[in-house]
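Hey, can you fold this one?
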Amino acid sequence: MTIRIMIQAPRGEFRTGYGKIAQPIANYLSKNKDYEIFYLCGAEKTFRKSTDKITYLPVKNDNWAGDFLQNNNVLFNYLTHFKIHYNLTFLDTWTGNATHLGGTHINAKTNWICHQTVNTYPVSSNIIQHSKNASWHVAPSKFVYDNLVKSGFDNVSYIPHFVDLKIFKPLNNKEELRKQFGLVKNDFVFLCVSKNNTGHKNLPNLLRAFSIFKKRNPDSVDVKLLLLTDPKDNESVSPDLGFVRYSFGLQDSVFFVWEKFNKDLKEWIPVIEGNGIPHFQSIGFSDEQMNKLYNLSDVLVLPSVGESFGLPIIEAHACGLPVIVGDHTACSELVVEGTGYVSGISDEIFNPSIHAWTKLPSTEHMAVLMEQAYKDKNKDFSKDCLKNAKKYDEKIILPKWGVLFDKMINSIPKGYGSRIGL
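Sure. Predicted structure:
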């Protein structure tokens, strides 16, 4: 019997955490001769079938493969037309765009496998309400797993995100990479890799912390902060980071990562602000280019108020970089001894739109940790960072998805139309 599995997520080329994780999972599962894989992916315009037994299903006008679907029957029609046994979703179930998912899967008689994004505590009542009818839940971190179980969810599996260690690895040409990018040899570089949306990623406070650091260290002219993000994200209510930078007087030390098309490589490469075009998330960089960006940097800073995993942390570790994160949600569980610095919490904020609390990393403590990282610039973190990254090697994690589907398939009494977990 052929098992038909659909994965609903942004396109792999759309370089978000969801897309970067979902595409390798689809590729891995497609190697099983008993599986037929369908990928319902945002921004896909036409049907196409790859050589890996994957049929890509289009969802026009929707980069995220979820927002547009709530107002029409596209998802239901795909599930029923292709007689999908399982739909694995990589979507934010705390948003209002997820309200239709439970009912749609029930009506389509399809098992819904819900990859859960939980970056608040307790679990948002929106998540509980929107995903209560899922057949199975996948938690990308121990933080998410523990909170789902505490909230009464059954059928929860912990499968963390992963990194391709064949691509993300230390390079020995930092000086050359910096020259190509537009930096000088002796610069000390903090890097932040983050989407700029509302207050969730906390980027204005990162700039505040960096401003405090610079004022306390007036001789630190060699210290730079690179921001790989959209300065102003038009897809969401986001802060104007260019204005925030100006308000702190950081024009000479904070730079946005721009992109430039390299005709020889036939791909977009990261360049320093002013040498190319402003970064736009939908373009993105290949993993090979991201590896170079990590390798020309010294420390990754991720100031988010909450993350269900924090993929840049492990990517940075794979390149030998220490990190600075907040002591909350999943971020701090990824930082073990010798791999970085953990900022304390300054306040807790209740978000009425999702009915849950978030924790705000201390701006003051982040500034202190930046100073400590600067003092530790001659310390070698690479051994401990690489050791930690190996725990999340895709060669170790991807087979866990195969085990999970084997487990779920054995729970189904018959074929299409049978649902587990209800």
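The mean pLDDT is 89. Let me know if you want another pass with a different chain boundary.
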